[in-house]
Amino acid sequence: MSQKIIFMPHANIQYSQLDPARRAWVCEHCYRPLFELVRDGEYRIAFEASGRTLEVMAGETPEVLALLKELIADGRIEPVGSPFIHVMLANIPPEVALHSLKRGLDAWEAYTGVRPETGWNPECGWAGSLPELYKEAGFNNLVMDADSFFLSFPEIREATGLAYDVQGHSNKNHLFKIEEYIRNRPEYLRFLTNPSVAPNGLNMIFRSDCMANPMLWYLMGATEGCRETPVGLDEIQSMLETWRGRIGHSGSFIMPYAEDAEYIGSSAYFYVKQFNQARFFEPEPGSVTRFRQLLDLARNTGYELSTPSDVIASAATPIVNDRVDCIENGAAWHGGTSKAWANTSYSRILDPVCRSLYDGVVALRQMLGNVPELEEAMNAIESSYVSDSRWPPLPTSPGRFNVQETIDDLYAANDLLGKAMANGGIAEKRAVYSAPLMKTQIAAIETLLMKQDYFGEK
């Protein structure tokens, strides 16, 4: 059996600090060159995008969307679905999460004609309800975070010394300690090199920063602050060869790259995340060439470029994996936590208002049914939960425009709730919901949030 390898860039057009006016630029300078590279090199990859990302592509760069659609039809790209809005699923009401997952699949079908069977969980934020939510939404497969999974084993957490904290941003550059522990242990490696299946029947494949992080540093051509030269192609080749040996003893594939598609063509959030520098989405055309070099190197090292669905279909009987129930509630990728997103000052101000609006929808449904205004309000509430108006924490921050988009969503949702009450003849029943009073609540937090200083403005 050939050893397979999966590369999955994932796209989020609502990225923190990505000015809405530059979203079309990202489509043209990141997504387009990626798709052209796949087309011209006859590669096979997976590609994830939120529904909103597809919507922006369709509206602002339809030729880029057409190229994606062509590559899916040709079997060069497997589409991977996710929530319509880039939300931290572990931090929001389950109904809103399910609503967004279904809308995300609807968007893929509307814009490409294909309904993905494989799902991606933004930031890999974890809660035990997620396998059931993905299954209920219509997914058969889910890409998982191996590092959170491995840290559910007490012996690995003890050996690595890694600990979770609700304000923990990332242990990304320290996750190599996990690899050091598991490298000669097939009982752990098998989860990285084989599909497994959750108790509810959802197929799972795992990605890890132990491979993705060096590849990201290679794409950026940057140093880690502790080395004189950037990561070289020889280091990546050595890594791929090492993992070929491990696959031979434990499984059939690896998934070394599940990282932001925006790093292919731009610096995206790299200098903010790694160095707290106010440098956002600078042109990085060399990273397109370097991504092609990664794909070529993988093929030349003996791997077959593959996709999640193909790996699952061609593998032996998947591992029955009830260990997913032991992953920390509130964990996220990079050794961080989804609860860190819920503990920023922005979340603490915004989330209670989002919840009040959602509770208003639930209350009004009982009196009016799911009338169109309430369905539209759910879409706006879903949008208001976008993670990138809440991240990152001090000393950095989201863009002011990211936060303003959420405020605008809250106003829109509240107006729709008021409209539903008026059209349903219950406008005077303010004991159920008061749109005028909630409007003052939204205005109060808008004033509070807009008075704050935002990273990169000075």
TrEMBL record:
Lineage, broadest ranks: Bacteria, Pseudomonadati, Lentisphaerota, Lentisphaeria, Victivallales
Protein name: Glycosyl hydrolase family 57
Glycoside hydrolase family 57 N-terminal domain boundaries: 28-152
Entry-linked PANTHER family: ALPHA-AMYLASE-RELATED (PTHR36306:SF1), ALPHA-AMYLASE-RELATED-RELATED (PTHR36306)
GO biological process, one term: carbohydrate metabolic process
A matching Pfam family: Glyco_hydro_57
Similarity field: Belongs to the glycosyl hydrolase 57 family.
InterPro entries in the record: GH57_Enzymes, Glyco_hydro/deAcase_b/a-brl, Glyco_hydro_57_N
Keywords: Carbohydrate metabolism, Hydrolase
GO function terms (MF aspect): hydrolase activity
